Amino acid sequence: MSDLPVNLKYAPSHEWVSVEDDNIVRVGITEFAQEQLGDLVYIGLPELGCKVNSQEQCAVVESVKTASDLFSPVSGEIVATNLILTDEPELINDDPYGTWIFCVKADVLSDLDQLMDADAYHEFIGQ
Q1: Within a domain: residue 31?
Q2: Which of 10, 36, 38, 80 is deepest in the core (most CB within 10 A)?
Q3: Residue 94: which residues within 8 A CB-CB, separation 6 or more?
Q4: CATH number of the domain residue 70 falls in
Q5: CA nearest 34: which of 21, 53, 15, 19?
Q6: Are 7 and 18 a contacting pair, CB within 8 Å?
Q7: CB 70 within 8 Å of CB 33
Q8: Do the beta carbons of residue 27 and residue 54 sit within 8 Å?
Q9: pLDDT in tens, 30-49
Q10: Within a domain: residue 99?
Q11: Are 61 and 83 a contacting pair, CB within 8 Å?
């Protein structure tokens, strides 16, 4: 496994999080997660405008092996989804840290305090 990007935060459920301007939180899955899942064949994206709570299931990824729920790291509103993944879910396998899945406009960023930095996530996955 390659080095983890230090500019991201990591959830125990293996999502990565990037905080952008205006409390926008961009979410994808980690390289560890995509390696465990195998070749992705389907991404179930959340609905735009949907309100989500922190730690609420809001999307799904399916692979040739299994399906896995994705959780919102913050409470807020879904403001963007990566529609290209509908036709090309394998982009996540090719570049997990360069391929985002959805964005949430966070009500408050303090929800992110529960996430791990790269060192803590590296230890969490035992790598």
Answers
A1: yes
A2: 10
A3: none
A4: 2.40.50.100
A5: 15
A6: yes
A7: no
A8: no
A9: 999 999 999 999 999 999 99
A10: yes
A11: no
Phi, psi of 47 (to 5 degrees): -80, 135
Strand partners, 69: 60
The token pair at 14 is 């293996």
Measured in whole angstroms, the distance separating CA 30 from the mean position of its chain's CA atoms is 7
Residue-level pLDDT, tens digit, the chain, 127 residues: 458 999 999 999 999 999 999 999 999 999 999 999 999 999 999 999 999 999 999 999 999 989 999 999 999 999 999 999 999 999 999 999 999 999 999 999 999 999 999 999 999 999 6
Q: Tell me the three state secondary structure of residue 86.
A: helix
Torsion (CA) 4, 7, 10, 16 in degrees, nearest 10: -90
Amino acid (1-letter code) at residue 5: P
Structure tokens at 64: 């040739």
**pTM exceeds 0.90 for this model:** yes
Sheet containing strand 67-71, edge to edge, reads 40-44, 57-63, 67-71
Find all residues with CB under 8 Å of 52, minimum gap 6, and list them. Answer: 46, 58, 72, 75, 76, 77, 78, 104
Range of the domain at 61: 9-124
